[in-house]
Amino acid sequence: MIKVSNNKNEEMPKIAFVFADLAYGGSNLQTVKIIQHSGAVNNCIVITLVDVENDTDIEDKLIEMGIRPIHLHFEKRKLFSELARLRHTVVKNQCQIVNSNGLRSDMACHYAFQRTDISHIITLHNYLREDAFLRMNRSKAMLATIMQTHVLRRSKHVIACSKTLQRQTEADIKGLKVTAIQNGVDPEEYPIMDKEVLRKQYCYPEDALIFISTGSMTLRKRIPETVDAFIRADLSNAKLLMVGNGPYLEEYKERYAQKKAVIFLGRRSDIKELLNISDVFVSSSESEGLPLAVLEAVSTHNYLCMSDIPQHKEVLDELEDVGELYHMGKVDELSELLKRASNKVKDFPQTSLKNTSLDIRIMGEKYRDYYCSVGNISKKIKHT
User: Which are the contacts of 342, defined by CB distance < 8 A and separation ≥ 6?
Assistant: First the structure.
């Protein structure tokens, strides 16, 4: 286990953040936030292994921060030479640390830097043993799990984005020490706005009860469970906003086309406004790291109705009286929870994430301390 430094004046080591790609998604967005709030912005490079067409939002965010990503355009047929090129890029830029995010970049960095004095940090954003089997066929999921286990067994520096993920990973791989740094959001980035004014702007009735669910339209999110429970609740003057893109979006839009109170909005750039319009946040997700969407919902004063996975429970353990859980898969139970929530939103106390473990500034400080500690170890190794 890394001994974390508390010296804020320590020099930040130069870090190479390695992404498989810059596709729009929670883990990539959170890594950008880690760069921003850990103090790494002025002393880092960002490397991508492969390209994603027509998806430049994250790259645009990095460029706004003054970081122009280095795209290596990996070719599978030239794997060994591509790993050498990755290693050369990091060495050329005088980085002491590489921080990988996701299985493809974890593996590339492991093999590229395993016999060098450059320290490799892995940040785990999800529990692959669950997530892989929800995203891939069985044989691919098993292979991905085996590959991740192989890399983690040989890793010295591993961060998990939640206490739950830390426990799960350490239980799976005996002897592995994982540091938990919980995901955080910026309370100032998700402020409380005037709900009455926003509803007029967006043409929603002032007295409507608005439920919202944000996230990718994938099997892991169990979208039909959320929508079916809302329909069964049969609440008068209520709407359900489904926000997010993904492979099942069109299928779900067609399936629920006759349900006028259910609105599929697709991917949106006005998430904070939509959350401020809403009263209740719903998540039926089957697997998470530590869901940013949930933290954003709390920050914008939404009551939480969520499946009983450990990651959701972790949020409720950290914050008091912000929501309830239901047994995942029990649509009728979720339906009853939505009915109860409709009576709680009027007296629901406002909760601030500021200065809690889920505040992005606290998260950033912990990452900075961790990077400095690993950087100090690297310096000692070089001088021995």
Answer: 209, 233, 235, 238, 279, 280
